[in-house]
Amino acid sequence: MSVHKDKQSGKWYAHACYQDGRGNQMRKMKRGFNTKKEALAWEREYLLQRTDDLTMSFENFLVLYAEDRRPRLKLNTWLSKEYIINAKLLPFFGKMAMNEIEAKDIIRWQNSLINGHDKNGKPYSQTYLKTIHNQLTAIFTHAYKFYGLKTNPASKAGSMGKKNADEMRFWTREEYSKFAEIAMQNQRLYYPVEILYWCGLRLGEMLALTFADVDLDKKTLRVNKSYQSIKGQVVITEPKTPKSRRTVTIPDFLCSSIQDYIALQYAFKPSDRMFGVSKSYLAYHLKKCADVAGVERIRVHDLRHSHVSLLIELGFSALAIAERVGHESIEVTYRYAHLFPTKQTEIAISLDREGELCHAF
Predict the structure, then answer these.
(1) Is pTM beyond 0.90 here?
(2) Sign of the Cα pseudo-torsion (267, 273, 274, 276, in order)
(3) What Rg value do the Cα atoms of the chain yield, rounded?
C-alpha cells in the first residue's frame, strides 16, 4: 500500500509512483494528511495529473495549466488570470471532473455571473464577463490541444459579454485646455498628464520613462519598457506588445514643458524614473481637477483615447496613428472611428464635390 501513517506525528503520508514521458520511474511523497482518505485522494489526483488522465478534477488540472502557462507570461498577466481563476472559476468547477464538464454546465455558470453583482452591488460589465469567459475557454482549449480532451465545452456553450463594451470616454482639445489650466497648479499631476495626453502613451509606459529616454535635441521619447506595481513591489517589464517599442516624436511646446520639468529636478541620474507618482494618485487628482475645471470626469487611460481621437480629428491615417501609439493592429485604431461621427458627413460632402466634378465632363 502506498499510503501510510506516521507513528510519531499521527499524520498520514502517501507515495505516488509513476512513469514519465521518457519511461523513467518517478516517485513523489507528500506528508501531513489528517486521514487515510485524504492521503488516498491526493495520491489518485496526483497520478491522474502525471498520466494526463482527464478524469482528474478541474482544480487539479489547473496545476498542470499553471505549470505550462505561467513561465510564458508576464507576472502581472499571470496574476490577473490567477485572480479570475480563483474568484470566478474554481468555486463552480473546482471539484468537477474535466471530462465530465458539459456545455450545459458552462451555461449554468454563465447565467450565475450574468445575474450576479460585484462587491458594490453592481452587475458585472459586459467586458468583464467576456474576460472571465475567455479565461475558462483558454483552460479547456489547453486541455483539448495538449491533454486529449475530446471537446471544448466552453466553446460549444458560446461566449457571454462583449469585447470592448466599456464606454470609451475622451476630452476634446478644448476640454483638455480647461483641465490643464487647473492641473498646472499641481506639478506632480500636470507634467505626467501632459505626456499622456499629447503623446498617447499607456500609463505603464509613461511611469517607466527615465530621463535617458528623453532626447530634447531630437524631440523624441523612447518607449521600451513598462511599469507595474505588483503586490506593492515596483516591476519594470517589457512593453505590452512588440509594436509597443517605439520612438514618439514630441511637439516643440511639450519639449519646452519637459525641459522646465527637468530643470526642477535635483541630483537625478539618467537611469532614474522621471515620475514617481502612482496610478491612484493620478486618478484621484485627475477627477478632482476635472470637477474644478467643469469638464467630464475621465479615467487615466482615457487620456490615451483622447490623444487618438485628437489625431483622428486632425486627419491622420489609421496606420500613422497605430504606429504612434503602439497598436499591434490597425484594427484596434479603427475602434475609435465612432468618436467623430461628423467625419461621415465630411466624407459625404467631399464625395459630393468629387461627384459633381466627375459629372461636369
Answers:
(1) no
(2) negative
(3) 27
